[in-house]
Amino acid sequence: MKKQSSIKSFGILFFLVFLIIGLWPLLDDKEIRIWSIALSIIFLLLGLTKSKILIPINNYWIKLGEFLGKIIAPIVMLVVFLFVVTPMSFLVKIIGKDLLGLKFSKKNNSYWIERENKLGPMKNQF
């Protein structure tokens, strides 16, 4: 059942994409693209009838999305690291904060942190 829904939404998605491509020239007072409108109608009809013709195209579309995800996700993470995490790290170092309490101190006998409120019994944890 899920596969049929995927085929239907795939057909409707490409109907909308090709419809927008076909009607886009109207914004510049140019003629519509007939080939794109025809292709959009074909995708709509195939999508609504849940045609098996769309299955291989849908599979290639999904594989393209997975491939792009493998490329784009690390790039986005790199950008977040370089432009968010790294400047915050420099800012914290300039301020001189020790957020994790990792600085060594000769004054302390122990780094043990006493718990103020006692935990109950550890039975039935889950």
Brief characterization of the structure:
The relative contact order is 0.08.
Sheet bearing the most strands, described? none
Unreliable stretches covering 5 or more consecutive residues: none
Percent helix, as a range, is 55-70%
**Backbone shape:** elongated
How much is the radius of gyration in Å? 29 Å
Number of strands: 0
Helical stretch count?
A: 3
Q: Report the portion of residues in β strands.
A: under 5%
Structural class: mainly alpha
Molecular structure report:
It is a single chain. The protein is mainly alpha-helical and 126 residues long. 63% of the residues lie in helices and 0% in strands. It has 3 helices and no strands. It has helices at residues 2-23, 34-48, 54-95. Helix 1 packs antiparallel against helix 2. The two termini are 36 Å apart. 9% of the residues are buried. The model has no long low-confidence stretch (mean pLDDT 88).
List keywords for this structure.
126 residues; elongated
SSE blueprint and pairings:
Layout (H helix, E strand, L loop, with lengths): L1 H22 L10 H15 L5 H42 L31
